[in-house]
Specification:
single chain, alpha+beta, two-stranded antiparallel ribbon, elongated
Amino acid sequence: MRLLKSLQHGWPAIRIKLKGINRVQKRLADGRYITYYYAWKGGPALPGKPSSPEFIAAYNEAVAKRAQPPQGVLLNAIYRDLSRGSPSRRRR
C-alpha cells in the first residue's frame, strides 16, 4: 500500500493505493457504462466507490481471507510443507 498526501479544503487528505484492484466496465442495455470493482482477477466483488470506507473494509476482508491457509490437519500440514519446500521436493 502506498500513501499519497494532498490538501483538500485546507485539510490534509490521504489517498491509499490498494494493490491488485481489478476494474471491469460493462455496457448496459440502455448504452450506459457501469464499473465493477474486484479485489483481484477472479476475486470477490467490492461494494461501493473506491474511496469509501465500505470499499476499503471489503478489500481488507477479502485479502485477509485469501491469506489464510486451508483448514484441516492434513491440508494444513501439506500446505506448510509445500510453502517451506519440504526435503522430499528438493533435488538431490
